[in-house]
Amino acid sequence: MADATPSFTFGPYRLIPSRRALLAEEQEVALRGRAFDLLLALIERRDRVVTKEELLALVWPGRVVEEGNLTVHVAGLRKLLGQGVIATLSGRGYRFVAPVHEEAGAPAAPGQAPPSPATLPAPLTRLIGRQEDLDRLQAWLQDARLVTVVGAGGVGKTRLALAAAERLRDRFPDGTWLADLGTQEDPALVPKAVAAALGLDVRGGAFLASATLWLAKRRGLLLLDGCEHLLQAAAEAAEAILRGCPGITILATSREPLRAEGEALHRLSPLGLAEPEAEVTAEGLRAHAAAALFLDRARAVRGDFDPGDAEAAEIMAICRRLDGLPLAIELAAPMLQALSPAQLRERLDRRFGLLAGGRRTALPRQQTLQATIAWSFELLEPSELDLLLRLSVFSGRWTAEAAGFVAGDAREEDEIARLIAGLVDKSLLQADLSGPEPRYRMLDATRFYAGERLPSAEGAAARRRLAQWLTRSCGQAEADWPVMPDEAWAERHGAERDNLRAGLAWAFGEGGDPALGITLASVSGELLGELHATGELMAWVDRALAAVTEATSSAVAGQLWLGRCGWLSAGEPGALAAAERAVALFRAAGDGFGLGRALWHQALQLAAVGDCAAADPLLAEAEALLGALPDSKTLVSLRRVQALVQARRGRPDRARPILDAASAMAERLGARRDAALVAGDIAELLFAAGEIDAAIAMAEGALAALGPVKARSAWVQHIHGALASYLLAKGEMAAARKLAGDRLYAARIMGIPQEVLSNLERAGLIAALEGDAAAAGRLLGHSEARQAARRAPRSPASAMVVARLRRTLGDRLPAEALQRLTAEGARLSEEQAIAEAARAMPSMPA
Question: Where are the alpha helices (DSSP H) in 568-671?
Fold first, then answer.
């Protein structure tokens, strides 16, 4: 059956309402949320003017919002689609004026899913004049494993690198990843940025080692973008990855070479210009790449722009004055809204003539870009410039509300929206319309120059306000997490991560405010933990705990200690003491909700070391505090701990109804991760009851529901490991061997000691069953020594593995030989035990 919803084609674009997708030349454009709703509303009513009041009611139904929200969205759409598409009728509203062809909906394929999101950011504009560079870069990437695109700021290095990566996507079957180093200021953060780009959740500080391990057996392309201010750190990271990862190619962008071993350089020149004495006509203008880009961007702001021969000469003069630098051209073209090409050229001549001391020779290219940005700044209204400079303290993307807060003045929201819309129009800000509300960012070059011009006192004040804003927004993220569906929560709050890093770095750095940093770290748990950065979270929590003073509130300190005793820390040294401190602090603060959370954390740690009797009164008190509250992920966690205690006491008949209720609650909440964790708990009960096939199906379903990225997170590694145990119990050796090897490798990367140990036990059983009794005996000895120190009881699946391993070795080895091997194993370090497992299972990732 055909889809009843039509699609709409205008210019190079096609809007498909049934998929909520906008395509440009059949490539999906990032347009989501309110921006999509606004575009659809205007297109469906293209036969008339749509008033602002009607649009507000259509796009924000049932909500009272400022008119500035509409202004910002319209500005973003014009920047994306061009200025000749949406007309403003002063005092009346807006109308979609581009010609539209309406088509009946195409039949959908059975079970067709929406396209998966791209690994790399989708380009918002066409790449112009770089075909030859693309071809050369593609050739370099076929011959060299480290290629650096080198060129002046604003020459288009990032855009070219992304285009090359997209063109070569099929050559790298395991993925293409972008590590944006332009937002980092500290060389020590380069490994973290790489690990984050790969989606790795690393607990501990070995970010580069973990990234190298994860990439070791993969074929992919890693982009290191914006390396020039972190050359040594970027070079060291690139060399380490290339040495340990034979299937990885690295494409870097920088203003100067990394000078790393094996580096090949592609020097990117500015866009092509006509010869100085050549006659330029309107017809021949597009033959020159710089002019073609200028025309494209000019028509985006003036849809009727159609230069004649005289104007063509002026345009070429403008492009020549701008050295053919794409960013400079993009900044200059919007000025045609107020100036003719001749006026624009004259002003550029005056501006650059002063900078060059009256010489008519071109400025060095970096100075050209700086001069273009500086001139762009000087053409701004004072209020626009003031806002732009203050916004340079953001490292990531921000909302209009955040911009108003960080600007630190009393301007109305509509005024902030007007200023932002103007800055978007002038190409000094980029609008991202892909989320539930617009977010904005500066290109790195613009941010750098704006930051340079921001007076130090005002910069310090803006950074303080950014940290204060983040404390508020991250606090909201913490409040939203228990009750908001996972995907909606990540879409709303996930974009703050780069800003959060900047805020924490400022607060704990020289000239910062450790007290503000402590508060900010206390509300960072969900944002960093849920976005696969638990290792980074632990580092900031430890830094904050070290800075706690008597002036720190009990609730804030309690929240920090909670970060040290969660599910991933169950049974680890210090986790129980951390939970006890959190309970005492929340009790002193009189915070019932916080106390309820701390109590189940303490009960979890007690159950993890087998003291279920001590956990009982804690769970009873937590139930009294939390049990009557509406459904939440917090309550799901409490139910999981209650079920764990029942299971540890040998009462699966009591544990299963608790887990079934928790599963239903997680589904109602849209809590996919919690639903998967509960399913993993149920799988353990099924396995303990001898229902191996049901346990396998339950565990596989839990992981499949998460999708490939979330299934890699530290939160669910125990489910993967347990599944390997279930497969061993069923006799599916090949599948179990691969899964156990992969999970040992993943747990080692992520720094999860208990999962490393459990997978070493699985490797030992596989070795024993396949005849390598010596390796199996040493791995058993290593496991027993570590488990004795840890004091935590094993899960049913792990207990089965170890019992079967002991039994198998007892049948095959004399008692003295087994005793000698286990003694040898007890002396092995973790790395030595992993090496032993790798020898026993040669197919395991090294």
Answer: 575-589, 592-608, 612-626, 633-648, 652-669
